[in-house]
Amino acid sequence: GMAVSKQFCIDNAYHVSPNRELVAFGLMNVFGGLFQAFPATSSMPRSKISNASGATSQFTGLLASCLPLTMATFGMPVLFYIPQVTISALVLAASVRLANYREIYFLVKMGAWAELTVLLITLALTFLFGPEIGVLVAFGMSLMMLVKKSSMAQVGVLGHWEEDENEATKYRDVLLFPRAKTIPGILILKIDSPLIFINMASFRDRIER
For 179-191, what is each residue's pLDDT tens digit? Predict the structure, then answer.
């Protein structure tokens, strides 16, 4: 649910409180459990369809739930004769429109090959073995990538940037600003990540080098 809300916050330029979202999901599941209801969550495909249709209120969810219920109750004699390949084509056509190709282009442009590898592996496993296997493998790979990044301390070497007259920002990362000059005999480091037990060894190795 949080991932869906954050995605639409970025797309539509508005703010959502994570605490309120979590409280809402928690209350829905608590009260729903009293009546043996299914766990409440959000759906990215349905949310994207609603967003593309111009929906702006919760009434869209009520309408979207009533229409399938009505069709399942009264329209099954008509839907029974529709070939499954036709329904599959409709689902595939809708799925293609839901894909965010800008994000893929952004990953390629930024050279995020690790994320692209996870994307391609997840896509292949989903097609071959189903969404459950694809999601589990993607979760495992993402978790390993997170642990690896957390174990690598982000340390930058600062140099004197003569073009900046502000004393607070006169020292810049030499990798980002090649013209910044290091001071002979003095090593100035900038730690861009919190120091925790998992990256202390990496931090010590970077300093010793």
Answer: 888 888 888 888 7
3-state secondary structure the chain: CHHHHHHHHHHHCCCCCHHHHHHHHHHHHHHHHHCCCCCCCCCHHHHHHHHHCCCCCCHHHHHHHHHHHHHHHHCHHHHCCCCHHHHHHHHHHHHHHHCCHHHHHHHHHHCCHHHHHHHHHHHHHHHHHCHHHHHHHHHHHHHHHHHHHHHCCCEEEEEECCCCCCHHHCEEECCCCCCCECCCCCCEEEECCCCCCCCHHHHHHHHHC
Residue whose entry in the numeric block shows the structure tokens 């900046």: 164
Which residue has tokens 């729903």?
32
Which pLDDT tens digit goes with each residue over 98-139? 677 788 888 888 888 888 899 899 989 988 998 889 889 999
pLDDT at site 136:
92
Task: Find, among 18, 13, 5, the residue nearest to 47 by Cα.
Answer: 5
- Cα(7)–Cα(45) distance, rounded to whole angstroms? 12
Read off the tokens for 60: 């869209």
Distance CA 104, CA 13 (A): 21
Pick 52 or 111 by higher pLDDT: 111
Q: Which residue has the tokens 């990362």?
A: 173
The two three-digit tokens of residue 57, written as one number: 């209120």
